Amino acid sequence: MKTKEIISLKLIASLLFLITGQAISAQSYLGFLEDNYNGVHGVISNPANIADSRLKLDINLIGISGFLGNNYLSTSLGDMFRDPGKAFDEAETTPKSENFIAANLDILGPSVMISLSEKHSVSLYTRGRIFTNIDDIDGSTIDKEGGFNENEDFSIDEGDLSGELNLWTEIGASYARVLMDHNEHFLKGGVTLKYLSGIHHTYLNGSEITIDYNSTDQTVATNGILTYGYDVGGEEGFENTFSNFGQSTGLGADLGFVYEWRPNHEKQKLVDLDGKKVSNRGINKYKLKFGLSITDIGSINNKGGEQQTYDLNNNQSIDNFDGDDLEDALKNNFSTVNGPQESSKTGLPTAFHGNVDWNIHSKFYLNLNSDFSLRKKNSLNTHHIQNQVSLSPRLETAWLSIYSPISLMQDIGFRWGAGLRAGPFYVGSGSILTSLFDQGKSLDIYAGLKVPVYHSKLRDKDGDGLKNSIDNCPETPGPIENQGCPWPDTDQDGLLDKDDNCPNEAGPTENTGCPWPDTDGDGVLDKDDKCPKTAGNLEHDGCPDSDGDGIIDIEDRCPQNPGKKEHKGCPDIDGDTLVDIDDQCPELAGPVYNNGCPEVTQEVQKQLNNYAKTILFDTGKATIKSESVAVMVDIIQILNEYPSAKFTVEGHTDSVGSSSSNQRLSEARANSVLDFLINEGISADRLRAVGFGEEKPITTNATKLGRKQNRRVEINLIK
Length: 719
What we know:
It is built from 13 helices and 29 strands. By secondary structure, it is of the alpha+beta class. The strands form 4 sheets. The chain has a 22-stranded antiparallel β-sheet that branches. A hairpin with a 2-residue loop joins strand 7 (154-182) and strand 8 (185-214). Helix 10 runs antiparallel to helix 11.
């Protein structure tokens, strides 16, 4: 057991070269997933893709996509075909502290996509997936091609590493629908739910792992922590791993949205004979398409598996090192920190995908696609994708598509591939051209067979909006109302029968094809008659002038009373420039701002109050004395001269007696005057009575004369 082969195979290989896995599911079928005629394959990257699909039905019989990549070794597929041994011997290597190896096999089994209606689509698929990789291995270790010599000291500082191998199957159901169809703006969304069944899993996760070999005493010192998990069937032999089928299960989901900009939407929709719009589902209608999705949300609960964490801190002789495989080496040489316990969940490779598709012209497209991992690298038994951006020019028709994706993949670099879809067959690779003509770090290929059933393309040869199958004149444009045929012009007056109110009698267009009538029989045709339903004369364009003031009735505000043109045919009796119908005082001249009524001046106001102050009442009462009637008549005459003015009748007393009795007396006297005025013809809405009692004296109440002056009535203008 002291040979260099034993050291290399038992120690180095056992600790470092466990087959592990990395998921790059959305990077399968590169180029084909952007094809608008990919059918059920569309749900792999974005479940919204199948809504408003170009296919009525798509049945996938079998599809296989494989990927192998690393950032350590570069080789050419052409060199491998010519001389495989020499190709690997002369391959360029790039040793790093974080080298990785990744492999992926994606098998899409019997699957179906059905377009239920213009808005709704569903799919059901079966899928098998295998992912394996080693992450963060030290490239200098890989460079030791023949192992390590037992007569020489050596050290390995591996640091942190991780890896996982997972094989599972999926049964997925997708639903997608159109969310918005607003002319040039079109939005659809979709979701996939999938049942996961784990078949095999193996994983490890190590930190601060070092190996030091002392050739003098032939001892190996190891350090670090290593977590190792596996399913029992897998440890007994990969051929027995399917005995665990159905034990490990889980649920997953994908979610996506697609927006399409359709600037030519009117030309892309036809109509039926009822005028209802019919979408031409057999053609692509967008100029630009934007897709966003998150895939592989979920995990698998692993059953029947075992996980243990080992402390690798040990120093022992090579003679005592025992173990034919990794499990034996760990159990026989190192102590357990944690475990055994049930295996950890398998985390799906959750990823975000962005996609932009540009219809350059007719059948030519340019696609920009990006895939970004939402999982952290080195998480325990959790997959993650390699971030990637690709640009794919594409020639696309219903039965044939040709594309050539150019991509940059994280840690792998430039890749150039090609693909083809011809009816039921599809084949391609995201790196075939790079691999053939230059040294590359990855190789992938996919191929498959399906049964596509396309939507028919609706034809409209004459471009009148009616599809040929229901167009009575398919080669001559015509309106829908006439079954796609042009309208006739029976009377040859230049107006089509559909717009001609008199299709058998020629007439001018402005009268919708009919001769002009003279409805009121005044000798002026309706087209020239400003009053077609009222007889008039030619001088006034067919309109009457009832009052003979030279202004026709329809423009005369006072058609029965002659007036001046500047007054729009109305008289102004008082000559105050305000016509009588707008003048509140048509027989009394007054300014416009006072509605034609005379304005109460300060002199008039003073005169009113001089009269009002002389109104006499019975002592202590509100009864107006008979000798004051003459004064009241004078007041009424003044008020009648200003019919639009409004006044307050105010009652005042002296300070003799209580203030409350004085208040009541003042109110009573004010109301007494108000009632007298109303009874004599003054409008009630022009007057308001108010009593102020002894609150507003105009002189002293200390003398008899002063008290007499304070006992008064005032009539004041309400401004």
